[in-house]
Amino acid sequence: MSTRIYIPCDSSALSLGAEAVASAITIEASRRKADITLVRNGSRGLYWLEPMVEVETAQGRVAYGPVAIDDVPALYEADFLKGGQHALSLGPTDKIPFLQKQERLTFARVGITDPLSIADYAAHDGWKGLKAALAMDGATVVKQVTDSGLRGRGGAAFPAGIKWKTVLDTSADQKYVVCNADEGDSGTYSDRMIMEGDPYVLIEGMTIAGVAVGATRGYIYVRSEYPHSCQVLAKAIALARASGYLGPDVMGSGKAFELEVRKGAGAYICGEETSLLESLEGKRGMVRFKPPLPAIAGLFGKPTVINNVITLASVPIIFANGAAHYRDFGVGRSRGTLPIQLAGNLKYCGLVEKAFGVTLRELLYDYGGGSASGRPIRAVQVGGPLGAYLPESQFDTPLDYEAFMAIGAMVGHGGIVAFDDTVDMAGMARYAMEFCAIESCGKCTPCRIGSTRGVEVIDHIVAGSEREKNIALLEDLCDTMLNGSLCALGGMTPFPVQSALKYFPNDFRAAPRSKVA
Amino acid sequence: MSDHEQDLNAVISRILEERKAYPGALLPILHGIQDALGYVPREAIAQIALGLNLSRAEIHGVVSFYHYFRTSPPGRHTVYLCRAESCQSMGANQLVEHAKAKLGVDFHETTRDGAFTLEPIYCLGNCACSPAMMIDDEVYGRVTPERFEEVIRILKEAA
Question: Which of A87, A149, A388, A459 counts the most CB atoms within 10 A of its CB?
Answer without folding.
Answer: A388
